[in-house]
Structure prediction request, 661 residues.
Amino acid sequence: MTNIVQPAGVDTVDSTAQLAAIRGGGPRKSRSALRLMLPTPTPWLITGLTLIGGIALFGIVGPYFTMDPTEIRNIGLTGPSAEHILGTTQTGQDVFAQLALATRGSLEIGLIVGVLATVLSAIFGILGTYIGGFADEAFSLFSNVFLVIPGLPLVIVISGFVPPESRGLWTIAVVLAITSWAGSARVLRAQTLSIRSRDYVSASRVAGERAWRVIAVEILPNLLPVLASQFVFAVIAAILGEAGLSFLGLGASNSSTLGTMLFYAQNGFALPLGAWWWFGPPGLIIALFGMGLSLVNFSIDEIINPKLKNVRQHKKRTKVAAKAARRKERTR
Amino acid sequence: MSYYLRKLGFYLIALWAALTLNFIIPRLMPGNPVDILLAKLQQRGGVVDASTRQAYELLLGGDNSQPVLVQYAQYLLNVGRGDLGVSVSYFPAPVSEVIGSSLPWTIMLVGISTVLATIIGVTLGAIVGWKPGTWLDSLVPATTLLAAVPYFWLALILVYVFATTLKLFPSQGGYDVILDPGWNLEFISSAITYGFLPALTIVVASLGGWLLGMRNMMVSTLSEDYIVTAQAKGLRSGRILRTYAARNAVLPSVAGFAISLGFVVSGSIVTEQVFSYPGIGSKLLTAVTNNDYALMQGLFLYITLAVLGANFVVDLFYGIIDPRTRARS
Prediction:
């Protein structure tokens, strides 16, 4: 997160430092200017980062410490106990071990699709808009058409035509990415349109900068918060989409994700048998991870739309003022 | 060009794109769907002659005797006539008949729950955003949990709590099977009881998004000058909330309807599967698991058509509530 935003901060630090100097602030002010580009550590942001970090750690490290998730025991469908923290499946497999492995699988696909979808949306959203004219119209029409064509039905149809043996992790990732970039492309287009007509962009064009340099150096840094926010959304959408697909039995073959876990739970009659420890945790992990990402997005939103930040700061100020007033009252 | 004409043109292009996707996808994919389909058809006792084969090849590809463009033209012609082939999994019913019997269920379920979720979410968002910084507002980030919950998982939990444990609602199907579908009170009340949990799933899972979007726009709108002016004029705060703030803040939510609807439709397909609801979603899955390619294509076409139609209506509506869009074009 910090890494993503920093280049933008470096870019603006000079001018804001000057501004701060004009206002009569010392070098301490410039540090706070850099901090303006970084999300403020609100309680919700910390909650979000903790959730993401915890679940990511669980997915990365967890599988090394849990028992073999495929081992079959003769204690089918037992509830949580000291030995099996989250109970066992119908065939006596340890749910906790499966959960760790499945979390890893889901994060993997979320990350792959998130990157692919963001790259696609950047190509269609930024490049077309920068070129302008016919290319802009065509790219914009293309992404709008993709936006209104419902994603999951298309993914289901495509997965239905691909035979299961050739339905690998990358196939699913590419299909999910193809169906999920359009929304962010539209947002990026709107942002690029406003940046592209600013004076410093025109200046660098007049100065004879090459197109890729104008895009990469002048335009892209301003779009980084938006791109970061779109990436976060893409990861959530990908994890949810993959879970849905796997739950329907259409996911990547030989993969183990939270969706496949739910698929086996549903087919193993976990629901009528009341095995909540089997179908509960996978969905909860998805929901909590998605919540963590959305909470981080809140902070990114405050960078994109400072009006949202004003509200929180205003609230903080009134709180501080109220506290001070109360203290005054007491000392009187 | 007027706003409405441009919108109509755009949706026609989108429709054409969907039709073309439908034509291209089976031709690009590995494997030979026509052979699989005909083998299935034969198993079900269907008569396979040269004309059936040709009809399916037109839908799914595999026929190399004609140029692709001719196939494409014939395919468009067939779809235009409503001829989508014969379903294998519901043999001998034609695809259009299978879709016709399941479409009303999904449209009712998704339609009603989307409208409910929108109204509740936007209203709550407006109220929460109206007084930013209160205890109610600080609860808003918690709704992201709702937005991130997978639809089908929420459905599983609801079935577990309300159907398996409390036995308040039935867990499977769309109506009591001993009743005949028809417009009588008994059947409708049965359909409502059966549809309650699926609808609740969709409403709860999609509520968070509406609420958040509305809340953020409301907060942005409140710092506009015209709100300050309205307050300075001494207007009642209820009036400012409704006719000054909420009315302007709701526009992006309406404009973003296409994205939201896409999520809802995707979510409801999986939800229908959990409840074995007799709608489009579970039919699509039956079609996929049975390699019923003709039905699959037909369903995708109808889902796309319904989504495009809904978006078109919302866009027309948007033109009415936001006059600037009409003026700009």
